[in-house]
Amino acid sequence: MKIRSGAGTLILAALMLLSSAAFAKTSRPKLILQITADQLRGDLLDRYRSVFTGGLKRILDGGYWIHRGDVDHGLTLSFPGQTTLATGMYPSHHGLTANEWWMERNGKWQEVDVVIDEQYKTLATPQRDAASPRNLTATTLGEWVKLANRDSKTIALSAGNSIAVAYGGTKADAVYWYDSTSGRFTTSTFYAAAMKPWVSAFNAGELQKYESRDWALSVPSGKIALANPDATDYENKGHHNTFPHIYDAESRADADGGIPTAYSHWFTATPMEDEALLGLAADAVDAERLGQRGVTDYLAVLIDSTDNVGHKYGPLSLEQLDTLVRIDRALGHFLDHLDATVGPGNYVLAFSADHGVVDPNESKTGRRIRTEEIEVVLDRIEALAIAHKGSREQLVEIIITELKKVDFIADAYSEAQLAAPSTDPFIKLYQNTFRKGYTTDFPLWTDKQRAHHPARYGVIARFKENMIIDAATGVHGSPYPPDRLVPIIFFGANIQPGSVETGGRTIDVAPTLAAAGEISAPHGLDGIVLKSAIQP
Q1: pTM of this structure
Q2: Which end of the chain is more exposed for a tag (fewer CB within 10 A), N or C?
Q3: pLDDT tens column, 241-258
Q4: What domains are there in the chain, each with its CATH number?
């Protein structure tokens, strides 16, 4: 673990001591708060630190900040990463090893969302199947809180569709997410038969104040140069890639006959989505009296626009910088609200991310892999599988051999390889996201109906570094360092302020936050308590 040093070390230490004075170790915290930003690479907070004036500045200055936290598994995707943060377990142990699995449904092989459950419906759109935690095989921090005291409440709120399920688990009092189809926050009938009144009231009233049709630049003029130049050609495929972003202009159908963009979908690729989320979180604190009832409660707030903006414009885009500036401001207001309601010495929080992201490779060695190239590879696999007359094990080896011939594929792994001991660092990473019988089609995404995708046979491919699918401007999912680099920050009651370069993994977040909240964690977690983050 490398401690950061420099000319400002003593000054920074003094500032940290002052900003954390209200958080001296006293009684058990009344509220445990877990905030996760989807797709936030660890170096971005260092790069943009001088711009922050609100909540991000507050937790960076006064918290325990691990600058280069590690996502210690191979598939750096949202559900595996988020659920690891919520459970302290590798995806191989918490069960949600991908965003989608390749499975047979109604006689066809297809992608199946890891949390979609046809037994339940979405309250906002009852005709649609909703989400449940039925595939979750580990308990969450929110469940540990409720186990410690049956009067405690666990609430999970997300801007991204259904990701809150990963934190709510099976025993949450409320799990809500922003539904981009209905344009409202909603939940699954797994969790409730009707909406909480405070959520319905927010949807009917306060939400509208965040729904601007104009996303204007809020980055101070002197800080704009910290980001890449606006209007970089590869941002958003060269379309609508400069400020201001105006819905009425950007929603029009393309000349090729594309479908106009609904406002609710456009909204999710702006920071306004998470400004609304933090507004809803404040309402949850008030309506449910979180942290104000003499017991310890749990609240998860799961930021989504960093992922949508990052995919659309890239991690170093001016749009992503503006997104972080707005989240910093909104988080500051939310923490002020907690100070006024729960009290500054009565809550503890962790802030992290589920994964990082690679810079667009237009400026790197490597290239984008077009869908057509992947389809050619899969066509060959399909033909080999149809013609094969031998055993399944023999076919698996044939598929792996064929995949290794492809110029953008570094390696391919079978279920047998991932189930066996190995010293290969990449195999070990993929073992941490391995669940027998549950294989994703990522990164070999296809637009065709395929009965013999490699995923059907438990085979997963690893692309070469800087070879990324041409699915968006910013792409993640690989086992390489940029995709595994995230910030990890603890702040508040029982936290020892400090700043270290390395020394923490996302599997360590839940057990460490539980320790700070004086909540017992289950035995056998993959993660550990980071004792250096906890006040002695």
Answers
A1: 0.93
A2: C
A3: 899 999 999 987 654 556
A4: 33-217+258-352+486-533 (3.40.720.10), 367-469 (3.30.1360)
